[in-house]
Write a structure and sequence with these properties.
Blueprint lengths: L9 E6 L2 H17 L4 E6 L1 H6 L2 E5 L15 H18 L3 E5 L2 H13 L4 E4 L11 H8 L2 E4 L4 H6 L5 E3 L24 E5 L4 H21 L4 E5 L6 H11 L7 E4 L5 H4 L3 E5 L2 H9 L3 E5 L3 H10 L7 H6 L5 E4 L5 H12 L2 H12 L10 H13 L1
Parallel strand pairs: 1-2, 1-4, 2-3, 4-5, 5-6, 6-7, 8-9, 8-11, 9-10, 11-12, 12-13
Helix pairs in contact: 1-15, 3-4, 7-8, 7-13
Amino acid sequence: MAITAPTNKNILIVAGDPSGDLHAANLIKALRAKDPEITITSMGGVRMQEVSTHFIYNLVSVGAVGFTEPFKNFFLWLKLIKLVRRYLEDKRPACVIAVDFYGFNHQVLGLAAHRKIPAFYYISPQVWASRPGRAAKIAKLTKEIFVIFPFEEALYKKVQGNATFVGHPLLDLMPEPLGKDFPPAGGEWKIGILPGSRRAEISRHLPLFLKAFYRIKEQHPKAKAYLFAVPEFPDDRIVPALESVEKYWSKDVEIVREKDYKVRASMDFAFTCSGTATLENALLGVPMAVAYKMSRLSWEVAKRVAKVQYISLVNILLKKPAVKELLQEKATVDLLAQEAFAFINNPPRMLAARKELTGLRTMLGSRGAAERAALKILSHLN
């Protein structure tokens, strides 16, 4: 097959989960701001679709997570890989940018490498948490890897990867933590509920978190819950789960979809699925209990491949159990409520936790991650 050099200013960007969709959308904005002639073709979620020139497929809506769930989408993956292959051959983009989502994106990177199309990784997968061998594969397939945790740079350089720490993109999105008094006036505790961003996560965690909230409400009648939902799941997907737990949920639980984190910043405590949400809460100074449940098979695999002591980014970064992690059979209503009361009934502990959590901001670099990555990518292309 004859290889021709890219002659256009089109870039293909691929992300596969809600947080990747969010950060990829901001990278797209930065690229287009620095070079208005660029066109962006993307495969991701609704946020990327809003800012891209062309959109191929809503990969985020598939919602595959864990070690076994992706196999359920095997034939869809094959179809989408063929779609990407055909796009690369027909359009010859100037470069490909992968955003997290290793399982699919390493296939995309391989297709790009085979066609001598330069590729970059923005927000590399957490290879340090499991399967560190993936770092060498990513290094081999990319011109540059833009990492968002300071310790990741050295990890890639050990395997001859060209890695640059650009700072964490959440720093550009997070408002400053609010000054709060505990207990709140009138006992009106605000409890955040973050069950996850994928269908399987929501179905496993939402009932637990809601029941734990109602334990709090038994002792603090004016407490209110705020269920933070992603755009991919409209109310008609969430309400049935709410109604199965408490038929009068509407007066106690408010569904929130926001882009500026202002409601989240006002939370006093949160029940949170493991993932990016734990770091978001920390940067806002919101104490939390972290829970995660997965299928038994996924759990058995996870125990064997995990290379870290903790699952929440907060504990990994602080290198200690700063937030309670309740996994699998320990993710129970009793233990979740118990952890919440340990803070709600102890205001000094609540204030100390807020101070420790917001201290993570200093570990994550400075604002401007997307802009720094965009400048680097454009310098390569020019």
